[in-house]
């Protein structure tokens, strides 16, 4: 697997798909999340859950993650240059990648090369990434924030977050993990967790996004809670860059 991943990197076998992030007030796509896929010459499409952990264990996540950042920024700016409605680009950052020395320079480089405004890039970090050595990470988070890059907490609710740190960290968005949204309409506990996250996020003046929205009933409940944004198969599965551009083209300008 490791040598296959190395070859994949050299031979450009990775691609990014994009999934819309929807503003629940306007119904418009205001952001997209970049999601990696591996187009294996013999095995076909390999999903990230099957190779990201190997990439993390071998350290290959650093060059792979750097490629993702550059490619996602390039694509966001290319859409902008085509005159498509402006969206922000959300990029997943693995814990190892976040902690590598020079990560800030990698982000700065991706922005400079692509010409993308820093405010149009959002880095998705998990609670585990951020809370591990919270004091050390604070420095990196602050530096990214000073650059103008947006930060969000991914899979929120599955890790552990110290509420004190949540307040201190320059994180602007909470992404409610899919596991709390799956049975939102039938499980009162999931409903309670989701609505608690929404009200906490609001109190801390953060944007709250619900992941994995598949059913209209879930969307209705999330709207009632005051959730700001949503993502899920109800709107669209992750699609190719061309597919995403078509979706944006069909969307009215704000
Ligand atoms: P994630 O960051 O939580 O990304 C969301 C995942 O949920 C994506 O799976 C997406 O396709 C899936 N999803 C979105 N809406 C729905 C829905 O309505 N129902 C269901 N059942 N699933 C939905 P994907 O693309 O397979 O990615 C899986 C994970 O792999 C991601 O979870 C993320 O942790 C990781 N990953 C993906 N791309 C990258 C990357 O470029 N870098 C790093 N470090 N990790 C990545
Ligand atoms: Ca994510
Ligand atoms: Ca997530
Ligand atoms: Ca997840």
TrEMBL record:
Q: Which residues form the EAL domain?
A: 1-252
**Top-level taxon in the UniProt lineage:** Bacteria
Q: Which Gene3D superfamilies match?
A: EAL domain (3.20.20.450)
What InterPro entries does the entry give?
Answer: Cyclic-di-GMP_PDE-like, EAL_dom, EAL_sf
Q: Which CDD domains match?
A: EAL (cd01948)
Q: Which PROSITE patterns match?
A: EAL (PS50883)
State what protein this is by name: EAL domain-containing protein
What species is this protein from? Dechloromonas hankyongensis
The upper taxonomy is: Bacteria, Pseudomonadati, Pseudomonadota, Betaproteobacteria, Rhodocyclales
